[in-house]
Amino acid sequence: MSETMKAAIFVEPGRMAVEEVPKARLEADTDAVVRMVRTCVCGSDLWYFRGLSPHERHAQIGHEGIGVVEEVGSAVTSVKPGDFVILPFPYSCGVCPVCKAGFESSCPHGGYFGSNQAEYVRVPQTDGTIVKIPGKPEDYDDATLASLLTISDVMSTGYHAAASAEVKPGDTAVVMGDGAVGLCGVLSAKMRGATQIIAMSRHEDRAAVAREFGATDIVAERDQAAIDKVLAMTDGYGADAVLECVGSKQSFDTAMGLVRAGGVIGRVGLPHYAEISAEGTFGRNIGVKGGPAPVRHYDLHAGLLDAVLNHEINPGRVFTGEYDLDHIQEAYEDMDARKVIKSLIRF
Amino acid sequence: MSETMKAAIFVEPGRMAVEEVPKARLEADTDAVVRMVRTCVCGSDLWYFRGLSPHERHAQIGHEGIGVVEEVGSAVTSVKPGDFVILPFPYSCGVCPVCKAGFESSCPHGGYFGSNQAEYVRVPQTDGTIVKIPGKPEDYDDATLASLLTISDVMSTGYHAAASAEVKPGDTAVVMGDGAVGLCGVLSAKMRGATQIIAMSRHEDRAAVAREFGATDIVAERDQAAIDKVLAMTDGYGADAVLECVGSKQSFDTAMGLVRAGGVIGRVGLPHYAEISAEGTFGRNIGVKGGPAPVRHYDLHAGLLDAVLNHEINPGRVFTGEYDLDHIQEAYEDMDARKVIKSLIRF
């Protein structure tokens, strides 16, 4: 009988379970198997949990994580069993022009993890995907482990919003969305030197983290009222950079209304809107960039891993609830009900 | 009786005239009046001439030009009568955050010239708009005057396509459109260090200028055939940067098909399409930037004026027909019929 492992199962919208399933194993010589140390629930998982986006029923789920390499295929050269690693939510070949340009998350040979809320995970294309962490999990305290976990997705995604929006020193940046990605967007805008950071938030716990991460102003208004407020704060010109970390039509429309002419909207929320106005963006020279975050690129080449290891940033603060895998239903429910900002799963 | 001047008049689609109209004069203390030395016909003027875009009938037209300052308002400090100048097609305050960010063409206090095909032109907001050229028109030969004329619009617009597409050294760039802007886009991609420059052209005279400007490859195909050809030339990955210098839906769709994941489409053709797919651009991390070109910014801060004065670039090569103002109908007709690439008007 083959080995088994515990895994979270998406049963149907609103209902998670934990089951014994076949243990993740090597399928190709470029694969690795990683024993998970921490995983978490993503805002995008909630779209499925809420029934707003389709997801296969009675199937594994999850795409974030850090862990320890258990086993590697014969072609893997970058890591060995026992190594402590980050699993970026996209997997990628690491060598094609798209990866070399720093867009591993859109690698045409890659894809996305989808079964990381489990004890073990199979990593495809290991050498092009994985990011090694110095030492062992035992070398780090819980807060640092939480921050390392964020650079498998949420912090890297916030950083992608800031980089896509071309935030530069001295900028005024607006961050749409006070979920974990938006909060990490605030931290990223700060890292890139924005001096005025306006966080859109109407939840006190989130606004508090936003302030801790560098937000200079909190705007609780929405739609036209939010636009009016930001325009009033920027002498009527709008913000140099907008980090769109929601993905709704409402949020994108608001972003369009408060961005300065010549500014860029960096968007990282999977778009739940069909179109961007070709004319509305043209006359005002509004740029639109973004997509799934190239996690590995930012971890290694924008200094996110070093910044976490040196305690310059503490993005793990977005985890305000901790659960074991057996309490996965509660982890989803609490995040769905906004009782917690983001749910961490310990093994 | 007030003084008069000769001016081109847009009578109706397909029909231009030359008439005596009241001479341009100062209306505000920040105005200047410029005696035109060269102007020209823009691809966007042809949209009106062809009846594809609305334009007031029996009205002045034109937005490009170089000339000599005739008179200045009392608040003007940057130029004096006798100075030789470029008139960027947008006018702008020059001091607001939008202008300071390098987007004078979207200055909320500015606008666009619209009566430059005339002997004299009124310049609003002179100090924030005008670009001074050293010396006098007599100091320059015809070829240099033609090149100086291009940096009032068409060369700066081509440069905006390249800058918006983020062309950088070593890139493969595709230029959509073989009109004067597209050809200047080729030259701009070359200036920014692209090593493979694929020009889309099916007209031998234009392809010849494209090659002279730095195009390494010419693609005559359109639509899916063009996409297939560019993909074949880039190992299936697509181009790092696409300069969309047409503005049609067909052209933008083709641009989307041949841009590399993570690449940027720089667009400068006034969009004759309604929307950009929010999802189609997201998964592949396709950026879309561009709009009306900040001419003054590129002339002064991207080195276009110096490059022309030092004869490093000769964008004036796009003028393959020369006319006097009395032959304005012919200047439009020849360009409309593609007998010439772009029509220059001498005074």
From TrEMBL, chains A, B:
Keywords: Metal-binding, Oxidoreductase, Zinc. Its cofactor is Zn(2+). One of its GO terms (molecular function) is zinc ion binding. Residues 14-345 form the Enoyl reductase (ER) domain. Its EC number is 1.1.1.1. It holds the Pfam family ADH_zinc_N. PANTHER family: DEHYDROGENASE, ZINC-CONTAINING, PUTATIVE (AFU_ORTHOLOGUE AFUA_2G02810)-RELATED, ZINC-TYPE ALCOHOL DEHYDROGENASE-LIKE. Belongs to the zinc-containing alcohol dehydrogenase family. This is Alcohol dehydrogenase GroES domain-containing protein. The lineage of its organism: Bacteria, Bacillati, Actinomycetota, Actinomycetes, Bifidobacteriales.
